[in-house]
Each structure stands twice: as structure tokens, then as C-alpha cells.
Amino acid sequence: MNALTVTSLIRLSGLALALAAATAAHADESQVKKSMEAFIGSPAVEKVTRTDYAGLYEVVLKNGQLVYTDARNSFIIDGSIIDTATRRDVTQARMNQLSAIDFSSLPLDQAVKIVKGKGTRVIATFEDPNCGYCKRLGKDLAQMDDVTIYTFLYPILSEDSRTKSDNVWCAKDKGKAWTAWVVDGEEPARASCDTATIARNVELGQSLRISGTPTIFLADGSRIGGYLPRAELEKAIDAVKR
Hints:
With 242 residues, the protein is α+β, with helices and mostly antiparallel strands. It folds into two domains: 3-98, Nuclear Transport Factor 2, Chain: A, CATH 3.10.450.70; 109-238, Glutaredoxin (3-Layer(aba) Sandwich), CATH 3.40.30. 42% of the residues lie in helices and 19% in strands. It contains seven helices and eleven strands. The radius of gyration is 24 Å and the shape is elongated.
């Protein structure tokens, strides 16, 4: 057997081993998915991926939740993995990745637009007018400069939230009406117009798995679920490459 043949066999053997390993990994992930859905009692699993941590499998559920299990599905971990070498919250980083969106796909014409200064920095928020943390966010945003804010009115807390959202949307100056409410507590005046946009916002938020407000999207599509103090939000916005 010549050297060329030996080399070819080695390469083929290596390829076969790689393919076998990939097939085995795929089979393991399929089995984990099957056993997890059997445990839950419904086809609730979106994706299963083997991690680099202690043989755990990452299980992404169709409701957006992320849990971990082993190859036999003998336990389920609902919590964060922290990489002790880097002190990085691996689970949160993965959740941020999974929940990111294509910012350019947002129907910005359905949002209340407010421009501060030059407005070169851009964010989008989903907010309920009766959300306390949304009001805190509104006060912070009112003090920021060089930012364009697209606020999707997202009334999910009460019937009154829908009424206020409708009145803001129907105001002559939507941005002024929204700011007056969240910053100064000035209730939006009663107004009427076509408010189908608000219903579309609710459908959009549900499709994006937004279950709480405020939810913030940065210009790169990354998601911030919940209120961030102004200094932290400024830092996150500035970290986005423009």
C-alpha cells in the first residue's frame, strides 16, 4: 500500500468518525427532545442543543423558556449557568441571543416616535401606560440626548391601559401626549380615531414573546427585558455599533 493510499484511508477514517459523531450527537438531541416532550405531555420543545457544560443539553421551549437536562432527561435545571472562569452568565447571554430580532423588520409606523437632540442613537420600546417601570423609563429617557425612541403602545395590564393607549395614539401630538403621561402624570385627553394599530401592536408583541413591560430593543436587535437604570441603558445603547 503506497503512502497516498494510506493518507487517503486516514482522511476517510477521520471523516467517517466525524460523521458518526455528528450523527450520534444529532440522535442524542432528538432523543432528549422526544423524552422531554413525553415528560411535558405535549410537543412543547422548539430546539435541543448539547452544551459544553458537564454534558448538559440546552432545551428551548416554544414559549421561549430555556432549561437544561441530561441525555436521559433524569433531571431538569431551571436556572442560570455561570462560567466561573469568566464570571459570565452563559444562560442570560444565550437568552439574549435567542430573543434578538431583526430591528429593521419592526413596523415603526405603528410606534410613537420621539426624537431627542440629533437622534442618531435609536431604540424601540414596548410599553403599557399603567406600567410603573415604564414611567421610570420615561423619566430617564426624557433626560437623555441624541436618541430616537420608537414606543409601541402595548396595553396588556388592564382595560384602562387600552383606553389610555387609544387616547395617546389619537392625540394630535402623540409624543407629547405620551411624555406628559409617563413623565408628569398628565392623563391623555379623550380622543377618537382608528385604533387598529394598538391591536396590531399587541399581536406583534405576542409574536415576539413579550410578556412584560417595558421591553427594549437596541438598534442591533438585542433585547433588554425590563427596566434598566439610565446609566446602564446609556452604556448598552452606546455599545451598539453604528
